[in-house]
């Protein structure tokens, strides 16, 4: 499996607090079958002022520690990127990081109040050649009133990442319900741990994979935790990657036909 959202770097945000915790998290993930982990600390100006060059240095140092400890895991670059008006410029300059320097970038919206014109931000990212991957929408307090907006984002070319722990009930019944609905409606592209520690919000990829098999079958479960994440690491165009199957009704009449959809098909080939 490949885990593309994990707060594994020690002492850089609200995730792992020290090297010991990072090593224990990596051991848990490796034992679960995770071979590649993206280190994705928050990039949140004014709160977590992490920058691309510093994240890269810290990942290289942690990889050396994992190798010395005999933990069979490869680390790649990334960031849990919060919404900012100059986000495209920051990505192009390297101040903010996409996943493994690909076109795919994790975007974390605010948990409680959506900023105005949020769909314009995603359109701008798509227009610049990036594929925004919305992190843990199933855990957002606004999902019940803004679900149609998420549908529009997927139709436009955005991807969705749900949390492994949400699938197994770690965050309560509502996130689990929304995770299952999104899976049924073909709204989930990848699952990642979003782990923050070895005991507080630990990696749960193995349990999530088992839950996925029961919900969407073996083939799609493997797409979600292995094949699509691998395609991201290889920077494949979305049109070259199988879409999530739709087994339930989705508002909006499918993926095709909107102006955003036509525009996104142009830019996704870049």
Outline:
The relative contact order is 0.15.
What would your notes on this structure say?
- By secondary structure, this protein is α/β, with parallel strands linked by helices.
- The chain has a domain at 81-268: Metal-dependent hydrolases (TIM Barrel, Alpha-Beta Barrel), CATH 3.20.20.140.
- Helix content is 43%, strand content 13%.
- It is built from 10 helices and 9 strands.
- The strands form 2 sheets. Strands 3-5-6-7-8-9 form a 6-stranded parallel sheet. Strands 1-2-4 form a 3-stranded parallel sheet.
- Helix 8 (205-216) crosses helix 9.
- It starts with a strand and ends with a helix.
- Mean pLDDT is 92; it is low at 251-270.
Topology, element by element:
Elements: E1 2-6, H1 19-32, E2 36-39, E3 42-43, H2 52-68, E4 74-77, E5 80-82, H3 87-93, E6 104-108, H4 118-127, E7 131-135, H5 143-156, E8 159-163, H6 164-167, H7 173-184, E9 190-192, H8 205-216, H9 218-233, H10 259-268
Parallel strand pairs: 1-2, 2-4, 3-5, 5-6, 6-7, 7-8, 8-9
Helix pairs in contact: 8-9
């Amino acid at each position: 499996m490949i885990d593309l959202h994990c707060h594994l770097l020690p002492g850089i945000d609200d995730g792992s607090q020290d090297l010991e915790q990072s090593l224990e998290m990596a051991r848990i993930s490796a034992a679960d079958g995770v071979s590649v982990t993206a280190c994705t600390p928050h990039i949140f100006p004014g709160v977590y002022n992490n920058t691309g060059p510093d994240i890269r240095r810290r990942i290289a140092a942690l990889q050396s520690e994992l190798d010395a400890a005999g933990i069979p895991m490869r680390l790649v670059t990334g960031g849990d990127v919060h919404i900012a008006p100059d986000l495209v410029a920051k990505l192009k300059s390297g101040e903010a990081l996409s996943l493994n320097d690909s076109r795919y970038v994790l975007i974390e919206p605010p948990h409680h109040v959506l900023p105005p014109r949020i769909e314009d931000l995603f359109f701008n990212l798509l227009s610049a050649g990036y594929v925004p991957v919305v992190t843990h929408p199933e855990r957002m307090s606004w999902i019940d009133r803004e679900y149609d907006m998420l549908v529009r984002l997927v139709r436009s070319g955005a991807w969705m990442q749900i949390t492994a722990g949400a699938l197994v009930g770690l965050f309560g019944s509502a996130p689990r319900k929304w995770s299952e609905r999104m899976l049924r409606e073909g709204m989930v592209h990848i699952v990642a741990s979003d782990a923050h520690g070895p005991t507080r919000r630990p990696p749960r990829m193995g349990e999530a994979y088992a839950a996925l098999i029961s919900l969407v079958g073996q083939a799609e479960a493997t797409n979600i935790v292995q094949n699509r994440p691998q395609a991201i690491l290889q920077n494949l165009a979305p049109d070259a990657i199988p879409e999530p199957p739709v087994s339930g009704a989705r508002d909006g009449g499918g993926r095709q036909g909107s102006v955003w959809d036509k525009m996104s098909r142009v830019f996704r080939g870049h």
